[in-house]
C-alpha cells in the first residue's frame, strides 16, 4: 500500500515533527503540509522565524524531516483532485462523526475498503478535518476508543492509523539502512 499523508491545519510543530518521524519509520514516502500547518525550511518566512520552526519540528522529528519527501500544498483541493484523477483513494482520519462513509479501524473486512494507493488526511488537533474537505473524502476511518477520552493526540492517531493500514497490506518497503 502506498500512502501520501496530508497534515492539514495541524497547529503544533511538535505534532508535525512526531508525525514526520513516525511516517518515516513506517515507510511513508510523501508527507503533504497544507493549510496553516508549520512548514519545514519554509522559504516564505523570515530567516529567524524559519529557524525557530525548524528547531521546534526537529525536536520531535529527530532528522526524519530530512528523510521524508515533504511537499507544501498551496491548494489542497486541487492537489486532492489531481491525486484522485491519478487513482488515489482519499481517506480522512476522524472521530465522533456520523457519516455513511465511516469505517472503524478494527472492523471485519476493512482491507476490502481500501485501494493500493491512499491519501490519508489528518486534520487540526481539536476541530479535525474541516467540513469543506468532507465532499472530497471517499472514506473516513476512526480509531475506536475504549477509555473516557474522546480522541487521541493527532500524532498518536497518525501512528495507529499508519500501523493498522500497514498491517492490511505492507506499506511499500523502505530502502535498506546503511551499515556504518
What can you see in these coordinates?
The protein has 180 residues and is α/β, with parallel strands linked by helices. It has one domain (2-168): 3-Layer(aba) Sandwich (Alpha/beta knot), CATH 3.40.1280. The chain has a seven-stranded parallel β-sheet. It has helices spanning 13-25, 47-61, 76-85, 154-168; strands at residues 2-8, 30-34, 69-72, 89-93, 102-104, 117-122, 139-142. Helix 1 (13-25) packs across helix 2 (47-61) and helix 1 runs parallel beside helix 4. The chain contains four helices and seven strands. The protein starts with a strand and ends in a 12-residue tail after the last helix.
Please provide the ordered H/E string of secondary-structure elements.
Answer: EHEHEHEEEEH
* Strand tally: 7
Provide the helix percentage. 25-40%
CATH superfamily: SPOUT methyltransferase, trefoil knot domain
Report the sheet with the most strands, covering strand number, pairing sense and barrel closure. 7 strands, parallel
Distance between the first and last residues' Cα: 30 Å
Q: Can you tell me the overall shape?
A: globular
Low-confidence stretches: none
Amino acid at each position: 500500500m502506498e500512502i501520501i499523508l496530508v497534515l492539514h491545519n495541524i497547529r503544533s510543530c511538535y505534532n508535525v515533527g512526531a508525525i514526520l518521524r513516525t511516517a518515516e519509520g513506517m515507510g511513508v514516502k510523501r508527507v503533504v503540509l497544507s493549510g496553516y500547518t508549520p512548514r519545514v525550511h519554509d522559504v516564505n518566512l523570515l530567516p529567524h522565524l524559519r529557524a525557530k520552526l525548524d528547531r521546534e519540528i526537529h525536536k520531535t522529528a529527530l532528522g526524519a524531516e530530512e528523510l521524508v519527501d515533504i511537499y507544501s500544498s498551496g491548494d489542497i483541493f486541487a492537489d486532492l483532485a489531481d491525486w484522485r484523477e491519478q487513482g488515489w483513494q482519499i481517506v480522512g482520519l476522524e472521530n465522533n462523526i456520523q457519516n455513511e462513509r465511516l469505517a472503524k479501524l478494527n472492523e471485519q473486512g476493512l482491507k476490502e475498503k481500501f485501494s493500493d494507493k491512499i491519501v490519508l488526511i489528518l486534520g487540526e488537533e481539536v476541530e479535525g478535518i474541516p467540513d469543506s474537505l468532507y465532499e472530497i473524502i471517499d472514506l473516513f476511518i476512526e480509531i475506536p476508543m475504549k477509555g473516557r477520552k474522546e480522541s487521541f493526540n493527532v500524532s498518536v492517531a497518525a501512528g495507529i492509523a499508519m500501523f493498522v493500514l500497514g498491517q492490511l497490506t505492507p506499506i511499500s518497503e523502505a530502502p535498506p539502512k546503511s551499515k556504518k
